[in-house]
C-alpha cells in the first residue's frame, strides 16, 4: 500500500514534517503528505521531548498517511518511562449507530503505560467491532460473519460479509445500540475530534475511500506523552499492583487465566525471539523478495522453519 501510494504520487518521499505552531507542551505539525510511520515517529518523539520538559507533550498532525500500528508509537513512550497515547482517523468504513452510510473510520487508539520490572499495559484497539480485512476473509471463504461485525444497506445487523462489503459497512465497537454500539461510535468521534478536527486534516466521510490512490489522504493524527514524574511518585509500583491483581483473578469457567492488554502480544514476541524470526508463508516471502528487487533494496534475511 505504501509503495503504491508513492508510485502513484499521492504520497511523497522527498520532504520532512514541519512544525506549524508550538507551545511548551504542544505542537501542530504538517506531515507534508509523507509516509505515516515517518510522520508518526517525528510527532511522538517531539511529544516525548516536550513531556520531559513540561510534564505533558501533545502533538497533532495533518497531512499524514496510514501510520501502521498505533501501539508502536505509544510504546516509544514506555521506553522513555512515560505513558503514551496515539490516535489516527482512517477511511470511512463504519456506519454510525442508527445510520446507514459509512461515515467514520475504524479510528484506532492506543494507550501504553510502564510498570515495574519491565512490565507494561499496552492497549491498541480499533473503535469498530472488527477489522475490515476479517470481513473480506470470511467473504473469500464464503462463510458468514458473527453478529455485531457489520450492517447492510438498511443499517441493519447482518451476517453476510458480501452485504457489508458491497452495500453496508462495519459496526461500531459493541455492535447494535442495545449492545452498546453507541459507545464505540462515541469513541470513533472522540478520535476524530483529536485528529482530523483538531489537526485540520480530512475527517469523517471526507477522508479518501479505502484502497484508493487517486487522491491525497490528509489524515489527522494525535500523539500524547505523559511524564509520570510530574505527578504522584510510585506510578510504576501501583501500575504493577493493578496488573498483577487482574492477572491473579480466578478465571471464568472454561478459561485458564485472566490477561491484561498487551499480554498476548508480549508472549508472541517471546515466541518470535525463541524461534529466531517471524513465520511467513513461502508465497509471501517470494512476493516480498520480488518487491525488494523491483525497488532495488535488500531483501529480508530468511531461513527455513
Lay out the secondary structure.
Layout: H1 2-8, E1 18-23, E2 26-30, H2 36-54, E3 56-64, H3 70-79, E4 83-88, E5 109-114, E6 120-125, H4 132-141, E7 150-151, E8 157-158, H5 161-166, E9 169-170, H6 181-199, E10 219-226, H7 235-247, H8 263-275, H9 282-295
Parallel strand pairs: 2-3
Antiparallel strand pairs: 1-2, 3-10, 4-5, 4-10, 5-6, 7-8, 7-9
Helix pairs in contact: 2-3
Gyration radius from CA atoms, angstroms: 21 Å
The main pleated sheet reads as: 7 strands, mixed
What general form does the structure show?
A: globular
Order of helices and strands: HEEHEHEEEHEEHEHEHHH
Largest sheet strand order: 1-2-3-10-4-5-6
Question: How much helix is in the residues?
Answer: 25-40%
How would you summarize this macromolecular structure in one to three sentences?
This protein is α+β, with helices and mostly antiparallel strands and 305 residues long. 36% of the residues lie in helices and 17% in strands. The chain has helices at 2-8, 36-54, 70-79, 132-141, 161-166, 181-199, 235-247, 263-275, 282-295; strands spanning 18-23, 26-30, 56-64, 83-88, 109-114, 120-125, 150-151, 157-158, 169-170, 219-226.
Q: Tags for this entry?
A:
305 residues; alpha+beta; seven-stranded mixed β-sheet; three-stranded antiparallel β-sheet; globular
Description of the structure:
By secondary structure, the protein is of the alpha+beta class. Helix content is 36%, strand content 17%. It has helices at residues 2-8, 36-54, 70-79, 132-141, 161-166, 181-199, 235-247, 263-275, 282-295, and strands at 18-23, 26-30, 56-64, 83-88, 109-114, 120-125, 150-151, 157-158, 169-170, 219-226. The chain is globular.
Amino acid at each position: 500500500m505504501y509503495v503504491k501510494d508513492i508510485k502513484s504520487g499521492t504520497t511523497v518521499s522527498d520532504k520532512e514534517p514541519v512544525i506549524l505552531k508550538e507551545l511548551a507542551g504542544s505542537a501542530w505539525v504538517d506531515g507534508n503528505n509523507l509516509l505515516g510511520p515517518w510522520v508518526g515517529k517525528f510527532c511522538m518523539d517531539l511529544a516525548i521531548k516536550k513531556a520531559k520538559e513540561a510534564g505533558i507533550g501533545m502533538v497533532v498532525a495533518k497531512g499524514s498517511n496510514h501510520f501502521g500500528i498505533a501501539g508502536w508509537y505509544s510504546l516509544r513512550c514506555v521506553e522513555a518511562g512515560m505513558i503514551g497515547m496515539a490516535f489516527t482517523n482512517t477511511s470511512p468504513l463504519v456506519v454510525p449507530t442508527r445510520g446507514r452510510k459509512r461515515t467514520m473510520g475504524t479510528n484506532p487508539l492506543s494507550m501504553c503505560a510502564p510498570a515495574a520490572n519491565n512490565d507494561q499495559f499496552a492497549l491498541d484497539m480499533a473503535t469498530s467491532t472488527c477489522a475490515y480485512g476479517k470481513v473480506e476473509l470470511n467473504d473469500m471463504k464464503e462463510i458468514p460473519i458473527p453478529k455485531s461485525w457489520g450492517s447492510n444497506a438498511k443499517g441493519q445487523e447482518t451476517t453476510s460479509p458480501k452485504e457489508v462489503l458491497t452495500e453496508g459497512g462495519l459496526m461500531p465497537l459493541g455492535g447494535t445500540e442495545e449492545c452498546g454500539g453507541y459507545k464505540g461510535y462515541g469513541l470513533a468521534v472522540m478520535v476524530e475530534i483529536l485528529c482530523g478536527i483538531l489537526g485540520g486534516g480530512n475527517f469523517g466521510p471526507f477522508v479518501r475511500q479505502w484502497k484508493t490512490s487517486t487522491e491525497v489522504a490528509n489524515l489527522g493524527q494525535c500523539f500524547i506523552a505523559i511524564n509520570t514524574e510530574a505527578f504522584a511518585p510510585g506510578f510504576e509500583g501501583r501500575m504493577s499492583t493493578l496488573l498483577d491483581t487482574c492477572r491473579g483473578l480466578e478465571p471464568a469457567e472454561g478459561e485458564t487465566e485472566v490477561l491484561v492488554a498487551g499480554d498476548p502480544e508480549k508472549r508472541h514476541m517471546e515466541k518470535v525471539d525463541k524461534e529466531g524470526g517471524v513465520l511467513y508463508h513461502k508465497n509471501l516471502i517470494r512476493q516480498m523478495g520480488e518487491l525488494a528487487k523491483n525497488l532495488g533494496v535488500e531483501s529480508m534475511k530468511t531461513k527455513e522453519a
